[in-house]
Amino acid sequence: MNLPLLAVSIYWDLPVLLVVVSLVYAATRHDRWDKIIHEATGWGLRITLFLAGIGLVLYLLSTYL
Q1: Which end of the chain, N or C, is less surrounded by CB atoms within 10 Å?
Q2: Dmax over Cα atoms in the chain, in whole Å?
């Protein structure tokens, strides 16, 4: 069975969710768009690094245990 290259997956929604959550969180703290974008960029980076760290730990645990 051949699956299309861009098959439906829950992981395609992850970048959209990261952007939306970061923007909403930043918008609750600031009123100006320049500050909202700056804060959202920082939060997006932190969330991405956190999720990548969890993924790396889980990968290492599944590979070496």
Answers
A1: N
A2: 51
